[in-house]
Design goal:
heterodimer, A: about 230 residues, alpha/beta, D-Maltodextrin-Binding Protein, domain 2, 2 domains, seven-stranded mixed beta sheet, five-stranded mixed beta sheet, 8 helices, about 30% strand, elongated, B: about 375 residues, alpha+beta, BirA Bifunctional Protein, domain 2, 3 domains, nine-stranded mixed beta sheet, three-stranded antiparallel beta sheet, globular
């Protein structure tokens, strides 16, 4: 069984601390720059140090069996997440919300129902669909189309500084991650009342597939350590 | 047509070609924008996307209606019946990503009842190649919108309910929401301007806000537009959908009958609820008569008042054809009078059409024999 853990910086430290709190020691093989290791208390569990965004992707691809990364990345990267992976533990760090935010000057828009109204009218008024800048196209699409029945909008992929997209004329609305909301505020954007798509934090996730009993036992002992 | 086309494809092609229509040739590789623009982002996860050297986003055609309508606009044609048959490509969790569809678009005929009936008969004839025991369900977006108008609902509410038509979950949510008064949601200067009904002052305030945020006043929503909607919303904040209107809507949405009895059921509903639906019911009745004139027995077709498709270009008739024992419909279609305008037609062009899933048709035919 292979466990992916963030390879760098604050996330790596926090993940290691969370494991320590659960009574587990993440040990790197060799020196700090080595990208593999193990968990001392659980024989048979290898550790791969990967970038946080790779962890979700490699879980989906089956290269690793378990991974520590943000729930936002897990749900965004892995199609049909609930059928293909399970969250074994919430680790209490990396907390952030994925939210829908609109310009503060849109004084008439406070809820998703308001945004639905605006989106429906947009094409007729402006000759184009309402544009949403985000790097979370899957989460956005699920929230807008499936949960709120909003079909008519366009996603503009934004890989950084998403909060600046409305002022740059790239989009009308954004879906982005926020911890304190201060970047949103300084860009004069407001979160819709019912616009929190996901309250995310770092999670320990397991890719679901048929496994031998010995691997299931490893997953179970990890899950037990985090409950 | 590839060698892997379902066996029934040749028969379907012959049937369509015999129904006074010309074949549309549609490239497999299509610009992705029109599909994303019309069918919504829900389509994105189902499309196979790629990019040209110049950065244009292309896709393998996920359906035929949009390209057929675009060709119609480019050709500057006025009236035409165009049929198609070929593979479409969609990502699906189960089942093949590549399957065959056929269908027909009846474009530019101002005689709505005749065109609706003709297309329904076309679809019925094609589906009949597989099964004799077809079940046909019809709905009508136009009648629902007429009920909303007759109930005297404010325009914003009508638009919201019309958008949710055909999706019972979203419709229930919208009705519940409109049944609750909202109350005021502003404070300070904005609250005062709204209380005074001062559209100009409100727009001026919004201009200031937008400038401070670095937003262009012309690239997206305009200050006047925001001010107007804020005032409309405030005017509606204290009112809510009346119990009587809700009861009438609920009663309407529960109407189900044979199409032969549907005109009487609808006019009985109109009289009971005291609603003026004459124009919509006349159109509905004319369509029923036209369907009978096409040789289909209205008593064998089902009308479901709540049946619709939640896309903003459907305007009138919608229908689905299935058969007992099938879990998915064989064919579906409807009237989309707004689609060609949305696709860039300089003046409105009426449109109604249908498509059939050939793989399902083939399977249904095999199962019946």
């Amino acid at each position: 069984m292979k466990l992916g853990i963030p390879s760098k910086g604050r996330l790596k430290e926090q993940a290691t601390e969370a494991f320590a709190k659960a009574g587990l020691t993440v040990a790197q093989a060799g020196d700090e720059r080595s990208y593999f290791g193990r968990v001392n208390e659980i024989p048979g569990l290898e550790v791969a140090f990967l970038s946080a965004s790779e962890i979700a992707r490699e879980l989906a691809a089956g290269a690793i069996d378990l991974g520590v990364t943000g729930e936002d990345l897990l749900r965004e990267t892995i199609a049909d997440f609930d059928a293909r992976a399970a969250i074994l533990g919430r680790l209490g760090f990396g907390r952030a919300d994925v939210v829908v935010a609109v310009p503060e000057s849109w004084i008439d828009v406070a809820t998703m129902a308001d945004l639905d109204d605006v989106a429906a009218d947009f094409r007729h008024r402006h000759g184009r669909r309402l544009r949403i800048a985000t790097k979370y196209w899957r989460l956005t699409q699920q929230f807008f189309s499936q949960q709120h029945g909003i079909q008519v909008y366009r996603i503009v992929e934004s890989l950084g500084a998403t909060e600046g997209a409305p002022a740059a004329g790239q989009a009308d609305v954004i879906v982005d991650i926020t911890t304190t909301g201060s970047t949103l505020k300084s860009n004069r954007l407001k979160i819709l009342n019912d616009g929190v798509i996901l309250r995310s934090e770092a999670c320990l996730a397991l890719a679901l597939k048929d496994r031998p009993a010995v691997d299931i036992a490893i997953a179970e002992s990890l899950a037990a350590a985090f409950t | 047509m590839t060698a892997r086309a379902p066996r029934i494809a040749a028969e379907v092609a012959a049937q369509l070609a015999a129904r006074h229509a010309v074949r549309a040739e549609v490239a497999v590789l299509q610009p992705a924008d029109p599909f994303l623009d019309m069918a919504g982002e829900d389509m994105r996860r189902r499309m196979f996307l790629t990019e040209s050297e110049t950065g244009q986003t292309l896709c393998l055609r996920p359906e035929f209606t949009i390209p057929v309508c675009r060709d119609h606009i480019v050709a500057g044609a006025r009236k035409a019946r165009r049929w198609y048959l070929g593979e479409v490509f969609r990502q699906r969790r189960d089942g093949a990503a590549e399957f065959h569809q056929a269908g027909l678009e009846d474009l530019g005929d101002p005689d709505e009842a005749a065109a609706d009936a003709r297309v329904l008969a076309d679809a019925h004839a094609v589906a009949s190649l597989a099964r004799r025991d077809l079940t046909v369900t019809l709905g009508d977006q136009g009648v629902f919108e007429a009920v909303l108008i007759a109930l005297g609902l404010p325009e914003g509410w009508r638009r919201r309910l019309a958008r949710a038509f055909g999706d019972s979950g979203q419709l229930d949510l919208a009705l519940a929401d409109l049944g609750r008064p909202k109350g005021a949601a502003h404070d300070g200067e904005v609250a005062a301007l709204i209380a005074a009904g001062d559209a100009t002052g409100l727009a001026a305030h919004i201009v200031g806000e937008m400038a401070a945020a670095g937003l262009s006043a012309t690239a997206g929503r305009a200050p006047e537009e925001i001010a107007r909607r804020a005032l409309e919303k405030a005017a509606l904040a204290t009112v809510r959908l009346e119990k009587k209107a809700l009861a009438a809507l609920t009663e309407f949405l529960a109407i189900r009958s044979g199409l032969d009895k549907a005109p009487a059921a609808l006019s009985a509903f109109a009289i009971r609820s005291g609603l003026a639906l004459d124009a919509a019911l006349a159109r509905f009745g004319a369509r029923v008569a036209a369907i009978a004139a096409e040789g289909l027995d209205p008593a064998a077709l089902a009308y479901d008042a709540a049946f619709g498709r939640p896309l903003d270009y459907y305007t009138g008739l919608v229908f689905e054809i299935s058969a007992p024992g099938l879990d998915k419909p064989l064919a579906g279609g409807g009237r989309y009078d707004r689609l060609l305008t949305l696709l860039g037609a300089p003046s409105p062009i009426a449109g109604v059409g249908f498509s059939v899933w050939l793989d399902r048709l083939d399977k249904a035919a095999g199962g019946a024999s």
